[in-house]
Give the backbone structure.
Amino acid sequence: MEVTPELAELFGAYVEDGTMSKMNGKGALLSIAAGREEEGWLNHVANLFEQIFKYRPKVLWNSNVYKIQIGVNKICKFFKEAGFPAGEKGLTVRVPKIVMETDDEITYKSFLRGYFDADGCLCFKKGWSGKRYIEFKKTHHYYPQISICSISKDLIVIDVKHILDSVGLHYIIWEMMPNGKGECKKYFATINGVTQLELWMSKIGTSNPVNSSKYKVWKKYGFCPPKTTFKQRMALLSGELDPESLY
């Protein structure tokens, strides 16, 4: 199948949040899960499946998450052939070769958008307490940071690094050691600063209302209070809630 922007975005979402389990017999069950505020994004993912495969899965609330589950054999088979075997993939998952080999900027941007929307993080930080920082920067979360993370070293250090280089974004790659038993080392690609955030939004964008609402609040007020819910951010954007009341 030709790698369209829609397929690249879907692959990005699946790399981060997708699983495939074997069913009794020869079948498999493909799933993509999202948090309780991300029904809107998962409906977007369902739209991607419909555009690509002419099949629209239902978005269901299941065990405290929203979830898409697909048992259609041709779709599961396609994902297997793209490099996503059934079973645990966290430590070994990579960007599919058919995406990497396109060496196409539009394809790369679409993959990044899907990957970021699945489980990436957009947050805003305060300035340091040094003398050169004005009071606003000391007290308000104004400085943007985008982070994407995986326990698959090759995914971040090789594949994502190549894609970020290709689309012209500045980033830092770093790792975090496990905090406890049974945890794995995590690898991060972090993009910092106003210029890079604006570049990300103009080049790559987001299809996840959770991310776009944070960005819109920041654009409106010059900062975005931390730990807000999606409902609170909608109230901030409509003017029903004063952002200063969240400090």
Summary: Residues 39-53 form the longest helix (15 residues). Strands lie at 18-22, 28-34, 59-62, 65-70, 121-125, 143-150, 172-176, 186-192. Residues 24 and 52 are 27 Å apart (CA to CA). The first strand starts at residue 18 and ends at 22.
